[in-house]
Amino acid sequence: MSSLHFRNQGRKIILIAEGSAFGIFVLEKNMLSEKIIMLSDIIAEFIKTVSINLSDDIDRRLRDIADSESNPTAKKMYSCILDDLELSRKLNRPICQDTGVLQFFVEIGTDCPFIKDIERAITIAAEKATEKTPLRPNIVDPLGEMNTGNNTGYNTPYIEYKIIPDSSDLIIKVYLSGGGCALPGRSRVLMPLEGKEGIKKFVYETIAEWGVNACPPLFVGIGIGACAVTAANLSKKALLRPVDSENDDKETADFEKEIEDGLNSLGIAPLGFGGDKTVLGVNIETAGRHPATLGVGISTGCWATRKGEIVIKDDLSFEIPSHKRLKEETK
Question: How many structural domains are present in the chain?
């Protein structure tokens, strides 16, 4: 017959069990709680890194555009932008006072030991990052108008999951969605006969009307699919791709370049003062559509598009492939 004895020790409950499998279970659960704390600390530090440092691709593209700019006023604007980046790193503070809404895109292996607890760990991490980075509290109840104060709340932070079979890895992509660059966001369903010209017209008109308020040069994500929801989701995922990447499909890649050239001809950027480049880049993601519909979505990132990717192993070792230069700089 098993006997159980409990003893309180701070935050832990120590279980002394004689011949009890139940005792082993409780101890393992306690150990897992410690892992959740460690995991949330890693994610919180990752969020801080992304809020202070641009990803390698955005940083590289922004500096390339600044170097090639021919407009004197625009060059002064880029000088201010680059100064901001340096001060952010020097002072260890976020690039922008609008630290955005935290959005997570999670790829988790079926063998990952954190699969049951990742939502809790991310939520705790959001609270920790808000306090310690610090991040501006940006989550407001949509009808009650009350700020939650810690960047969490009902259905917040936003977390989207993708399950990876036969893997123990945890891959987290985070996007800090600022208010200004979210304002141009649009999604609508066109008639299929409108085709590519209809897509271009929708994108050009949207950026021409709203782009100046979104802190250009902009990173533009476009989603094309069956409905407004599919297209909007794809447009956000397009922003998670490197800004200097091309779609694997050649026709889509050519369309990315065509729209990028068209948007640059608007002459809005940087910060609306005019210049050679209105966009950092244009990425397009597609999905099959219905014969009677052509869904198009638009998402934009500002010049300080803050996104990142972290890969966490089952032993809690990790790497941040989106910010490799930071590791090189510390060597």
Answer: 2
Q: Which range of residues forms the domain containing residue 214? A: 182-301
Looking at the structure, do residues 312 and 287 belong to the same domain, yes or no? no
Between CA 173 and CA 305 the distance in angstroms is 13
* Region 83-97 average pLDDT: 98
Rg (CA), the chain: 23
Spatial distance between the Cα atoms of 313 and 283, rounded to a whole number of angstroms: 29
148-194 pLDDT, tens digit each: 999 999 999 999 999 999 999 999 999 999 999 999 999 999 999 99
In-domain check, residue 10: no
Can you tell me the distance from the alpha carbon of 239 to that of 282, in angstroms, rounded to the nearest whole number? 9
How much helix, strand and coil, in percent to the nearest 5, is found in the chain? 45, 25, 30
- Residues 186, 154, single domain; the answer is no
Angle CA(260)–CA(268)–CA(85) in degrees, nearest 5?
90
Interatomic CA distance for residues 330 and 182, integer angstroms? 34
Q: Is residue 19 part of a domain?
A: no
Residues 244 and 319 occupy one common structural domain: no
- Pair (290, 312) in one structural domain: no
- Residue 328, pLDDT score: 83
Is 30 among the domain residues? no
Rounded to whole angstroms, the Cα distance separating 119 from 39 reads 11
Coil, helix or strand at residue 71: coil
Q: What is the DSSP letter of 95?
A: S
Residues 276 and 75: beta-carbon distance below 8 Å: no
Q: State whether 296 and 206 are in the same domain.
A: yes
Q: In sequence order, which residues have a C-beta less than 8 Å from that of residue 99 and are 6 or more positions away?
A: 51, 133, 135, 136, 138, 176, 178
What are the tens digits of pLDDT across the range 291-315?
999 999 999 999 999 999 999 999 9
